[in-house]
Every structure is written in C-alpha cells, then in structure tokens.
Task: structure prediction
Amino acid sequence: MYVCSCFGITEKQVKEHADAGACTPRQIASACKAGTDCGGCVRAIQAVLGRGTCPRRELLDRKRTPGTAADTTTEAAPGTAQGIAPGVAPGIPLPDAA
Result:
C-alpha cells in the first residue's frame, strides 16, 4: 500500500527505513523524501512507525526522565548561563595568559 503518493513510497519501504534506524517522520523524509511534498502522508508515516523500539527514541526518553543515568540536565547557578563561568561574557575572548 502506498503511504506517500507524491513520491511513490510504500508502507514496506517506510518499514525498511525504520528497520535501518529511521525512527521519526523527519528521518524517514531524509531517507526517501516521503512527507516532504504535500505533507499529507506524515500521519500515515507516524502510524507505521508507531511506538516501536527505537534506540534513539529510548535515549531521548531517558534524557527527559530526571534521576536516570542518562539525565544530562543540570541546574545553572542563578544569574549564569548554562556552561559559562560566572563573570565571563559569552562571545568575548579571554585575554591570553602572559
């Protein structure tokens, strides 16, 4: 059955791309252009992908769940940007140590 009539992409082809690692409609679009013309097939692609196991999706889910080993979110000190030391303005080069 055709999922994307604009590019002639079948459900079988979408499943093959998913088996090869494409876990989202955007990744499917990168692999075969399905969903990039009229967009009418994006929901059908989502339905084919479902919520099956996907290594990338599982990593993302773990990053979003606080308290897991893969939780990479950290609290920045008040008044500082994440990853920038207090008193250092982003984009301004530091003087060379002499």
